Inverse folding.
């Protein structure tokens, strides 16, 4: 059995990777379990910890699970890019969430999770789901649809923990170390370099920059919303509620604003299956297993590497290579995020 401070550290580490999978450092707030997440979507996961965590070295199995989770989450940007070649963003997300609901319904029926016990709790779940799924994913998908590469999109969205940490320190009373303030400065500088280069070479349109700003706002607001309200809800029932309300918003939008036809193909089906089953279900279960084993810090120490996976895969599959200021900006951004979010596993 680990001691009480060890349990608190384990719980703190678990909270750090919730939703955005990044830490809002220096928190003194106490939360029980967070399940408002981008789990069962691209982004994000239920984190809890068992009160009987064992203090022991990391096994090879746990290391594989941690790397799988980080790799599959980064690879989600490439799966989205492939899917968007066959369907416009809101339509693609509608198909994705519809398939997610089909996968979740039997899980919920078999496991019988706890449902929200009050309208207030239900309202929090709905708001968090709309911010994390509809706003965040809608913006990030439109960014790629309008020409931004998957790798650059991932890097720009990796600035989320920097913004979250800054807002928490400025308005929520959080304390940041000098290392973390340095990380915020470097990370934002890196983002500025990437954006400046993309504008300079005319690879970033006003629409794509607006979409990424909407996405970044959604995921940051969702993270802070979860952090503030933090109710105890079950991942399975919460995810199903969030999927249903997100589908109810995105399906009409797809019908109203998008007239491009869906090009049905095995590639489209594979992208949806990967995002729902490979990332959401298997990825979240891998994270869940690590949480039960007290390895939240293991994931937290790797999560800043997530943008490297879409950059590398995009190069291998599409021959897209970051150049000039973009390459420098990506390196500076990742260094900044690492300084803010990294902790020893």
């Amino acid at each position: 059995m680990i001691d009480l401070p060890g349990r608190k550290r384990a719980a703190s580490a678990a909270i750090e990777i919730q939703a955005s999978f990044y830490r809002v450092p220096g928190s003194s707030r106490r939360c029980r379990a967070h399940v408002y997440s981008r789990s069962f979507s691209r982004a994000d996961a239920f984190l809890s910890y068992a009160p009987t965590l064992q203090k022991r070295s990391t096994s090879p199995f746990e290391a594989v699970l941690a790397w799988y989770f980080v790799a599959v989450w980064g690879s989600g940007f490439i799966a989205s890019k492939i899917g968007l070649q066959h369907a416009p963003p809101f339509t693609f997300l509608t198909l994705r969430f519809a398939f997610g609901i089909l996968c979740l319904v039997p899980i919920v029926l078999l496991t019988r999770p706890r449902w929200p016990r009050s309208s207030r709790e239900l309202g929090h779940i709905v708001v968090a789901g709309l911010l994390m799924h509809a706003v965040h994913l809608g913006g990030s998908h439109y960014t790629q649809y309008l020409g931004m590469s998957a790798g650059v999109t991932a890097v720009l969205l990796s600035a989320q923990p920097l913004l979250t940490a800054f807002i928490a320190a400025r308005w929520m009373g959080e304390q940041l170390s000098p290392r973390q303030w340095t990380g915020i400065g470097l990370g934002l500088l890196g983002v500025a370099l990437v954006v400046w280069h993309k504008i300079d070479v005319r690879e970033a349109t006003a629409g794509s920059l607006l979409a990424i700003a909407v996405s970044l706002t959604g995921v940051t607001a969702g993270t802070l919303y979860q952090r503030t309200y933090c109710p105890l809800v079950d991942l399975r029932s919460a995810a199903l509620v969030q999927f249903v309300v997100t589908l109810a918003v995105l399906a009409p939008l797809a019908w109203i604003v998008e007239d491009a036809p869906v090009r049905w193909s095995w590639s489209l089906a594979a992208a949806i299956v990967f995002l729902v089953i490979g990332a959401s279900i298997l990825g979240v279960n891998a994270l869940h297993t690590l949480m039960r084993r007290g390895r939240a810090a293991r994931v937290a120490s790797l999560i800043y590497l997530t943008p490297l996976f879409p950059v590398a895969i995009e190069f291998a599959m599409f021959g897209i290579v970051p150049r000039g200021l973009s390459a420098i900006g990506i390196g500076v951004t990742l260094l900044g995020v690492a300084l803010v979010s990294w902790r020893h596993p």
Notes: Residues 36-46+61-167+175-341 form one domain. The chain has one domain: 36-46+61-167+175-341.
